């Protein structure tokens, strides 16, 4: 049997949403990933430590693992999965992030760090879903003072880096800010989130304290998948998928297992109605590991997937987990939508109707 | 009263569709334009002279001018419009075009010309709506033989020029075919339709027998209007609107009244349902002259609009009309959708909710 075991898969960028949406999407991540970085752009956004901690509690309360595994059970290819499920305990860590905004204070940053929140997430104002409270300007004296402290505290700055220019140039136009920050705060780790432009890769390589996260869809799609034939709202996300050259460069760096890049799905569930109304975001949580295995295997780089989907993140973000989760994938055609539907609730699943080369065969956990 | 009179406005690229859609959209063009070039990409496409002539007859049968003027009456700003309507006779000429396909024969081209059809419309296979029967390859010996004859007969070749490459590069990648054809057939007039890429302007200027048509929306929009904020299917068309640089270049050449470029709206009605399913095309027929006046006036180039919207086409396509239609526009805020709805039937009108600076004040016709 042709299998691959991924140990402690980590998703360093995910939108888990709230309430019924949280309930619907969490099982897919909680079952197959050991840790996820939960984005703070809720409505309202998580502007202080208190709201981040309250959100973390909600996520943990929704972590009903029996339910989670029952939901993903139809997608597990194993004749006797119950036997494995018995071994599964609460093995899922949501890593939290604080939404950076114009009124953020030094005291709030210190409080966050003390409370175990070490990731600051910066959105430029209006750049994406619920980014209305984002920063209108990044390089302000006040914010630079905060970053000085964040650096001292060993925090990490994750940035949705887009200018307000022409959509295809936005990420590239924002790079000078990354450069400025990387030079000004040489021991602050700074992440270029959901990298979509090949120029960002060069920038990450230029500074030791710059890193990147990469989504599945930026490895697979170009703008042609959105506008090349009929308009396809389900391939629409921010930053928008770009040119074939960009995709090739991002794919190459991910396949290489380059230690400066970790996997972050940017799984962003929106109802079909919201998608038809133009919302940006791709919901890919249910098929991530299957699709990543298929992709890396197709390119004969499966040996680098463990780095891309786990080890790099553990190192960059200095994550330690008190357990080990093994996800065993088997080379066998898998179509998510074939079991029940290509939807999870009112949300269309990315690649939900496509044949993937790998399916999940088992999930096993043990104490670290 | 601040008015401008446009004489014999001509729309050198329009989709009039069939049946109920034809009935719904024709009044807007028939009332305000003296002539239009009707596109042959119907379903099924107009692959021979007979079907083109049958389509022309259908259009003429639908030209109920009383109905047409009654439909546009609410959009005319005139206290006593009836007085003018009495003067209006049948003053509308649909210019027809033959769909170029792989099985087109020399005899069919000759027959078309004899029947008064002098425009050949070429679509690359699959480039846009109903282009499945388009040419899989352009520069074939067989087609070049046909073009030799078309040149001899004084016909005109209109091309939807897009490669099957990356969407933002498709028009530029097709230009070498225009160059090849322009050189091979120096007295054949060749039109780059609905120009969307600034490189096409250079190409038109390079060869005396190359010309271009320009839409309203390519003068106004960039890709950002489709994907820059929320996804907006109503701004989606083929060729897709491109970069700010492209728009600026196209706008500049249109505003200059450059004699090698004529107006062609590419008004392409699709039901809202079809648009939500990703159909490419913008329906702008009801607001064309109002929006063009507003745009040219805003840029202080209103004196060149007559050339752009009429004289250039008369000369390039060698059109003579047995009547003169004057459309009098008045500088007064106009919102199409304010009267009844932003829709015509099930079709959303481009800019239907926007305030335009000009409205139509009167339409008068006389014998040439």
* Element-by-element helix/strand order of chain A: EEHEHHHEHEHEHEHEHHHEHHHEHEEE
Radius of gyration of chain A: 19 Å
Main sheet properties of chain A = 8 strands, parallel
Total domain units of chain A: 1
Q: Tell me, what's the shape of chain A? A: globular
In spatial order, strands of the major sheet of chain A run 2-3-4-5-6-7-8-9
Short description:
2 copies of one chain form a homodimer. Chain A has a single domain, classed as Metal-dependent hydrolases (TIM Barrel), CATH 3.20.20.140.
What does this structure look like?
The structure is a homodimer of 368-residue chains. The first copy, chain A, has helices spanning 19-32, 49-62, 65-72, 81-85, 106-114, 141-152, 170-184, 198-206, 217-220, 224-228, 244-255, 272-276, 288-298, 305-316, 336-339; strands at residues 3-7, 10-14, 35-38, 93-100, 119-122, 156-159, 189-192, 210-214, 261-263, 323-334, 343-344, 347-348, 356-367. Chain A has 368 residues and is of the alpha/beta class. Chain A has one domain (3-367): Metal-dependent hydrolases (TIM Barrel). The first copy, chain A, has an 8-stranded parallel sheet. The relative contact order of chain A is 0.17.
